[in-house]
Amino acid sequence: MKYKACIFDFDLTLADSSPGILICFKHTLEKFGCPIPDDLTIYKTIGLTLVDGFDVLTGIKNNPLREQMREEYTRKADEVMSAQTYFYDDTLRILEGLRGAGVKVGILSTKLRYRIVESFEMKIGSLPVDEIIGAEDVGAAKPDPSGLLMMIRRLGVSKEQALYVGDSYIDAQTAMAAGVDFAATATGSTSAEELMKYPNVWVGKSLTEIFSAINNNA
Fold this sequence. Notes:
By secondary structure, this protein is an alpha/beta fold.
């Protein structure tokens, strides 16, 4: 494999956390007296920052209550999110396989870092990555490339030696803005057809398919 570092999005790339996300959004919207959209509408906000997600779901741009909503969502997520997060069957094998081959592994997510750590510890019992950059670690969220570039520096590789793996158009835009190779797993709300419109080395249905293809084409 030509890459010395693989950096992953978290939600819907490594794990399906949508059950917990739906619970937390519905709880918060109800508490603030807002109409609750259907599950698919909420699902499609995964990958956005929480405050942007609340703007979409309330239909109010720069909602003056967006920060209070974020805080309430976080309180509910502290109760339910990690228990309602389910890693894909091949996640641990892929991450451990990369590290065993000497490839550095990072996670870049709009999710809070401590939540990612908690989810791994609760569901897998280990933390099979080298670095995690979460929402609290960056000044600007994806698709701003600063978080991805920060991760590359932390892992000690060049942009040309790194691969970013995600599930959404936001991840694709992040990689493109950073000038980093991108691979997509169509496990989120962005279709494979849409993901193919962005520069990529592979678009697949799973992490296993992506890395099998990359290794075979190396």
